[in-house]
Amino acid sequence: xxxxxxxxxxxxxxxxxxxxxxxxxxxxxxxxxxxxxxxxxxxxxxxxxxxxxxxxxxxxxxxxxxxxxxxxxxxxxxxxxxxxxxxxxxxxxxxxxxxxxxxxxxxxxxxxxxxxxxxxxxxxxxxxxxxxxxxxxxxxxxxxxxxxxxxxxxxxxxxxxxxxxxxxxxxxxxxxxxxxxxxxxxxxxxxxxxxxxxxxxxxxxxxxxxxxxxxxxxxxxxxxxxxxxxxxxxxxxxxxxxxxxxxxxxxxxxxxxxxxxxxxxxxxxxxxxx
Length: 274
Fold this sequence. Notes:
Layout: H1 13-26, E1 31-33, H2 41-51, E2 55-60, H3 66-72, E3 78-83, H4 87-105, E4 107-111, E5 117-120, E6 127-131, H5 133-142, H6 147-159, H7 168-187, E7 192-195, H8 198-201, H9 211-219, E8 224-226, H10 230-243, E9 249-255, E10 260-267
Parallel strand pairs: 1-2, 2-3, 4-6, 4-7, 7-8
Antiparallel strand pairs: 5-6, 9-10
């Protein structure tokens, strides 16, 4: 992240006008405004209104009154910090700005259907490149059981607390899916992926469930969404960028007689807490 600080203080209407015009020309991803006295507050609110871009405002305790805080603390696009020299909060706010930029520049490869097409997510600007299932099927056929595949399968077995059902052959096949997914991500120059795996799992199976591959991708900080669920994949991307931890995905389910709510066929990283 690059932060360019204006050398001139914004202490009067003329300097604020100059600054707003410069912002409109240079179009930065966001602003960091630091008022040092109450009389600066009208400059802050004017910049927020006229610049119209994501803004982090840092006011140390004693600068603002409750009325000032109420003006911006719930305003969309503004992260207002009224605290005692809390630079951690500033970092969080700037990370939000950085994440918004990253989402706009990012691409999701969507393995689904039979067509190749591209769309853009409204508001976030993330590109979604859809590639047909056949791309995964063909790549899976080409992917042999190499030493790297064997090593990953061995790690799956070693790190598992218990192996309940799959055979060693099943685990080798699961490891192959990671390398297939990683190669598709690289060839499509994507930052995240999602897949509708169900067609390939109908009989006769064209490939094994790719869940373990999803797990390994998330271990690397790559968002991997199940069932080509765009909202879930975008959320995984946001969580990864904002908190530096992988998220998880599940279907909500209920056991009515025991009054239990639980997650069914979950996917997550190898460590749920990151």
